[in-house]
Amino acid sequence: MTEAAEMMHVEVTRFDPDQDEVPKVQEYDIPIQSDWKVLDAINYIKDEVDSSLSHRWSCRMAVCGSCGMMVNGEPKLTCKTSLADYSGSIKIEPLANFPIVRDLVVDIDGFMDKFRQVKPWILRAKERAEDMEALNEKGTFSQSPAELGAFKQFSMCINCLLCYSACPVVANEPEFIGPAAIALGHRYNLDSRDEGARERNETFRGEGTVFSCSFANECSQVCPKNVDPAAAVNQAKLGAVIDWAKGLVLPREGA
Amino acid sequence: MIQVSRHDIVIVGGGGAGLRAAIAAAEAHPDASIALVSKVYPMRSHTVSAEGGAAAVARDDDSEELHGFDTVKGSDFLGDQDVIEYFVEQAPRELALLENWGCPWSRNDDGTVSTRAFGGMTTKRTWYATDKVGFHMLHALFQHSMRFENIVRYDEFFVTELLTENGECKGVAALEIRTGEFHAILGRAVILATGGAGKIFPFTTNGTIKTGDGMALAYRAGVALKDMEFVQYHPTGLPGTGILITEAARGEGGYLRNADGDRFLVDYDYGVGNKAELGPRDMVSRAIIQEFEAGRGIDSKVGLHAALDLTHLGEAHINEKLPFVRELAKTYIGVDPVYEHIPIRPVVHYMMGGVDTDVNSATSMPGLYAAGEVACASLNGANRLGSNSLTECLVAGAVAGQNAMDFARGSSEGNVERLRGQAECESARVDALRGSAKGSEQISGLRQEMNSTMEEGCGVYRDHPSMAVAAEKAREIRQRASDLHLTDKSKVFNTEIIGAMELVNMVELAEVLAVSAAARKESRGAHTCRDFPKRDDTNFLYHTMAYQTEDGPRLDKKDVKLGHWEPQERKY
Q: Distance between CA B541 and CA B558 in Å, rounded?
C-alpha cells in the first residue's frame, strides 16, 4: 500500500438461511486503493475483516462469469467494475431475480435447466458415421469468415447472468427462458454447421420463450461482453415465425 | 448421515480435460453412468482464461515430426518421448473434433481453420478463436457435454479425499458446498482433472480456484508428484493483477521493448536466435529479468516492467485478432494497445509438474487417472510450449475417459459399506474443522506467507541457499496450517472452510515444490539456478518423484523416456 488509503463505506447483503428469516445489511468501512475493482473491496472484507462473507469469484479478468452482483442497484460484473466509479459509499447485493443461497451467492440451477432446453450443441440431420462426407480432408467443416461472423457475437456469452437480473420479464415471470439462453440457441441456429434450427424454433414458439420478451433491451445494456441478447431474441422471434409460416404453406417443411 | 451415489466412473474437475474425459466415456458407453464433480460450475473452470490457442499440425509445410521435436526441445529434453509422439499424432484429430462440436475457430478465406505463430513452434500450428481460445473451447465442450444424459453433474461439490480399497481408487468423498452435506460419490475408476496450483504464488495469471486440489488428493493417497520444481513464468502478465496478455500478441507480430525502447530479444543474445519475441517462455522470461537487472527495466507506479508494443499492428488487426488483449489492457491497466505500449512482466502461469501419469493418463494407483495441468504425463518436461496445454487437455482427457471406462468395466465396485465408512470418517473431520475457533492462524495471513516464501525462493532465477530457506519455511507453514482459526459455522455455502481446505492443499504442494527444486542442482528449462547455470544430463536427466511422508516429501527419481530425438544443446 504505497498510496494514502482512502476509505469507503460498503453495505453488503448478508443472509444465512440457517439463522436469518430475511436478508439483512452489514456495513463495513474499509481502506481502498484507486485502481481497485468492486471485487477487490469484497475480497478485502473477506480476507481482512469478516471471513464468514460468502461470494463467488475466480478469474478476475471478466471471462469466467462468476462474480455478477448488484452494485448500487445495477447488475455488474464486479471484477470489471471500477471502485473509482463510486464515491464514498457503495451497496453490494446478490444478483436480482434469483433466489439467494447465502450472502452474495444466488441459485443459478434454474438457469442451467433453461440453458439446456435450447439444445446448445451442433445438431445434424445424420448420425456421425453417415455424416463424414460433410467434412473436408482435415476432418473439419468448411466455414467461411462471413459464416463465422454470422453467429460469433452470440457465442461470446460468459453466462454471468447480469441479463436475467436486468430483465423485467424474468422479474415477473421467473419461468421465462431468458436472454442468455435464447441468445445461445440463436447462436447455434445461425451456425452454418448446424441443422437444428427447426427443433430449436419449436422450443422458441413454446410458452415463456421468445414471445414473452417485451423488448425492454435492458439485457443488452448490462451485458459486459456486448453479446446483444436483445438482438438475438428479436431475430429468434422472426426465425420462429418464419418456420411456423413455412409449416402452414409447406406442411412437410414445418415444425 | 452422508449420501452415497454410485457411478461407473467419477471425474473430478469440469474444465477442458474433465469435460473431454466425460464426453469420451459417455460417447463410447451410452449405458454407463459418469459423474462429473467440480467445485465450480463447469463454465467457470480456469480453462476459460486461456487466450492464445491450441497446437496441432494443420498446414502442408508442417509435420508431426516437427511438432514433436519442437516440444522435446522446448521441454529441454525432460519430456517423455512416447508421450510426445502420441500427443502430436492425436492433436489434429482432437482439435478437428472440437470444430465438429461447434468451437468457433477463426477461419481462412477458403473456409479452413486458421493457424497462428507461437513461441518455440517452427511454423504456424496454433489453432485459435480470436484470443479467447480457452473460453470458446470450454464452452463448446460444456455445451456439447449437455447432450449426454449419462453425464451426471455434481456442480459446486468440493472433493476432500479419494476413497480407496486395497490400494485401488473407488470414488471420492465430497462436500456439497451449497448445503454442507457430505457425499460418497463412488465409481470403479476416478479421473483427476482439477488443473494446476498457480495460487501458491502471489503473482499469477491463475484464477482463485487454481489451488492444486487434485495434486494434493493424489499425493495424500500415496501417488507421486513429479517434476514439481518446474514452474512456468509467462513473460507477459499485467503488473499488479498478473492478468495474462497472450503470447498470441507476439505471434501476431508484437515486440518486447526495454526502457531504451530497444527490442532486447533482437539486440542482445538471449539464446532465442531469430525467433526473437517468439522464443520459448522460459527464455523470454529470463531475458526480461536480465533486462531489469541491467537497469533497462521501466520503472513506474506499477513496478518494474518491460513493454509489449503492438502499436505497429494497427487498430484493424488488433480488433480482428486480439480484441480481448485490447479489452484487458484498457480495463485492467488503462492502456489502449492501439496507441500505447502495454506494461508487462513475467508471471507464474503453469505447473509443468503434477500427478505422475503415463501415456495412458494412468497413475501408479489402479483405478486412478489424471489429465490436464493436474497431471504430469511429461509432455512438457522442464518447459511447456505455449498452446500445447489446451491440446493436452483434450488428448489426455480423451485417453483418460476411455481408459478409466475400460478399467471400470473390469473391476468391482468394492465394498460399498466400507467405502461409506471411510467417507463418514472424512465427514467427521470436515465437520470438526467447520467454524473451529481453536486454532490461531488466519487463512489469509498464512496464505500471504506461503506466497511470499515461494516467490522469494522459487522465482524465474533461483539459487540453492534461497531454495533451502523456502523449503524449510514451507515446511513450517505446512505445519501451522493444521492450526487454522475459522469463524464461519454455517453449513450453507461456507467459503471459509473451502478456503481453509484449499490452503491446506496448497501448503503441501508448496513444500513439495521447494524441496524438489532444492534437490535439482542444474539449470533446465524453467528451473534456472544462478549457482548451477548449466544443464547437467550426466547427473540430472531424470524426473523428480515426491512421495508424502509425515516428515515432508521423500524424493526419488524416474528415468526420462528418450527416443529418436537425442538430447542436444538447446539453442534457437
A: 9
